[in-house]
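Pasting as-is:
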Amino acid sequence: MTALDAAQQNKQQSRLFWGTRTIFLINGLGMSAWAPLVPFTRDRLALSGGSLGALLLCLGVGSLAAMPVTGTLVARFGCRRVMLLSTILVLAMLPLLAIAETKALMAASLMMFGAGLGTLDVAMNYQAVEVEKASGRPMMSGFHGFFSLGGILGAGTVSLLLSLAFTSLAAVLVVMAVMLLLLLWHLPALLNDRLHQPDQPWLVIPRGGVAFLGLLCFILFLAEGAVLDWGALLLLQNPAMLPAYAGLGYALFSCAMTVGRFTGDKIIHRFGRYPVMLAGALAAAAGMTLAVCLPWPEAALFAFLLVGFGLANTVPMLFNAVGNQQDMPANLAISAMTTLGYAGILSGPALIGFISHWISLSGAFLLIALLLLAVAASARLVAR
């Protein structure tokens, strides 16, 4: 290979690297832009708590319906087309989420919004696996770090604009403009190869190692959902915890996860996948346990930091593992595992609520800690 060829190859790898980071950032921006609009939607449509919960479920249903078929879409049309169209769908739905005046329109918009996000999630992780394979070095944690960064920036920007008296629609349009510019800028860097496998099924049932990895992904997403939906309530079980500070648990968790992902590739390169997977699952289990057991509010808050650092790189390493297994084609395997993982977040609040009813909220978190120990015990199988 000549010096010119090497330079061109490095330039192409750099384009793919930044294109992949950008599509993760776009997904994070789009998903999080919706979160600050939830109270406005509740008030605009005069929703009760139960009605709002049923409406929010539409987003998850849309995602779960789209994820299983995305692997086949990628095979037939290529990543670029799938990511382009799914991002356009997300962009088209965001204004409707800000202005819809009927429950039916909001439900339909949320379902299509979820379908766009779910499709984009599977396709971008497939591109990430392929780019990482071509590079020969760890990249997956950094890619997921940009998704976390997008989540912080999207929710933060919309919240800031709303506080400055922007309307919901105007705030969303600002984020949409940024997403569209980023997409057009990096569109040529998205993979466009078709897999030329027209016989691939539309509905994929995970098998072999993919089913096992999907179960681990379910547990990890369940743990993440537990912190998101129930973390503040767990902290408030301590009489010394002030309600105004209970939400800091998830904020600390999110910051730790973002920092952990941006440093994860270097850590994995330095120590290897098995030690990082093992230490991450053990740290998350320890953090869950300490959040329950520590009597000091400040210490319990910082236990969520430990959970965030622990979970930061475990899910990215699962995507690396599922992309390199031999039981199923990578595009179908990623589609199946993502579906199972997202089911963990979607069903998590209900499962934890059911367990809390029969045992206690503390008992539910300790049960998740035990499940995380099972992930730690499986670390060598994931990292092989």
